[in-house]
Design brief:
Elements: E1 6-10, E2 13-24, E3 33-36, E4 61-64, E5 68-71, H1 72-79
Antiparallel strand pairs: 1-2, 2-3, 4-5
This protein binds zinc ion (2 copies).
One zinc ion (ZN) binds at residues 25, 27, 30, 32, 56-57, 59-60.
Amino acid sequence: MEYGSYTMTRNGQTIEAGYNITAPCDRTGCTIQISRGLDALCGNEPGGDDGCGGFFCDRHLHIASSEGYLCRDCYQHVAGGVR
Ligand SMILES: [Zn+2]
Ligand SMILES: [Zn+2]
């Protein structure tokens, strides 16, 4: 699979993703520009079940042991809270 640029379905919407796609962090109110590579993805794979499929900046991604990187909301869901 080519990850430079591709489309994925998220919440019924088709969005562009991949290392070559630059977009703001998906966290509401965050305007930091990120590239939508797998290292910015919430979850293990695009469209997977582990995360919400959003792309987030470093401030809004947390390392979860088996789920890969998760956004704050998803991380709280699996880890029971982050402070
Ligand atoms: Zn998430
Ligand atoms: Zn952010």
